[in-house]
Amino acid sequence: MIVCRSISEIRSSIAASKKPTDTIGLVPTMGFLHNGHMALVEQAKAKASCVIATIYVNPSQFGEATDLDAYPRNESRDLVMLEAAGVDTVLIPDTGDIYPEGDETIVETTRLANTLHGKVRPGHFRGVTTVVARLFNIVQPDFAFFGEKDFQQLQVIKRMVRDLHFPIQIIGVPTVREADGLAMSSRNVRLPEADRAAAVVLSQALTQAAHLARQETTISAIDDLIRGMINSESRADLSAVDIVWSDTLEPAQGPLTKPIAIMLSAQFGDVLLIDQREIAP
Ligand code: AMP
Fold it and tell me: Which atom of ligand 1 is nearest to the CA of 183?
């Protein structure tokens, strides 16, 4: 596995090794890898002849510096996992390289970035699209892989790729969960034991919502069920419940007549967790 620490290094490495028939699959991550990330790598291996992963904790998508500083890191363990999974190349860039001095260019999906979870984290999706567009230009992949756990992020990136005509196919990968249902996340290690136990309420609420959806029901009944369950967990501080029609991402209301996506975010102490599920009637 080749490890590149600068843009010029990865560009020369790709130029030297890429055959005309090769396809590149990109897996962008912020490191501190777990089985959710590895599911993305596995899909990339299945789809592309060359897999490139990136490890970069992108400052521009964090609101508070404390959240950025607290983000867990373990580069040596990440490299062992990526190598074992058969990744060809890893890019671990510096911030000075990604955001050159005097940098003033941003990429933003102006509507989508500022609705739903974007209201809980102002500027977050602008940071994501800005860095992902740069990674796309650096690596020039054929495919890029993103988790469905970050449902809105996946939609934002698909919209950016469509609008800016990136010749890249975006592939969403289903959420990988712990045995009790908690969505795997690098942030989970920051949860003290009691919060870790309480955090299961997010996936439980989504499971109960899916049960309810099997009967004739309404969006507001689903919303009430979810809020009731999460609010009854004293360690959870609910930030948002967003229920949207899967096809338009517009807020859903009235009877449940077609597939919806439910997006949850809640604070457990100072850790913000998110989860999502798509549900068909
Ligand atoms: P992150 O390192 O948290 O920025 O995540 C990098 C990529 O892995 C993103 O596309 C995430 O959506 C995806 N990802 C994170 N957690 C999971 C999970 N539990 N299951 C599937 N994909 C995930």
Answer: 19
